[in-house]
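Why glutathione transferase? Reviewers of the renewal asked for a concrete example.
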Amino acid sequence: ILDMQGVVVCETHAGLNYISTKYNLYGKDMKERALIDMYVEGMFDLNELLMKYGYLPPGKRDENFANMMDKAENRYFPVFEKVLKDHGNDFLVGNQLSRADVQLLEIILMAEECKPDILAKFPLLQSFKARISNIPTIKKFLQPGSQRKPLITEEELPKVIKIFY
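Here is what the prediction returned.
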C-alpha cells in the first residue's frame, strides 16, 4: 500500500504509475507513455526471476540460475541494447529520465549481484548504467545505507525458506 499525502494506492503497478506521473517520469505525451509501459511490462518477467532467485531453496537455485541468466543475456538485454542504439539518446524513451530507465537500472543491478560480468557483451547498457547511476538522486539512493536492499544472505535464507516453503 502506498500512501502519499492522503492518496492511498494498492497494487504495485498502480503505485508505480502514480509515482511516475507525480514526479514526471511517465513521458511527455501518450506515445512516450505507451513506450514506457511497453518497456516496463517487458521487464517484469526478468524482474520477477531476479527477485525470486534470492529466496529459492539451495537445490532450486542452481537450476533457476542458468535459466535466469540465459533469459537476461539472450532475450532481455539484447532487446534493451537495441532500443538504446535505435533511440540514440541517453534514455530509453524521449530525452529525459523515465520510469522505464529506473526499472532497467534496477534489473541491471540485480542481475550484476548474481553475475557481475553480465553486461560484458552490452556496451550501451554499460554506459546506460553508469549514466543513470550518476544522476544525483539515484546516486544518493545507491549509496551504502540507503533503502535499497541487497540480495538475501546465505545466513538469512533458512528463515525465509521456513516462512515461504
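The chain has one domain: 28-164. This is the kind of structural detail the renewal will allow us to pursue systematically.
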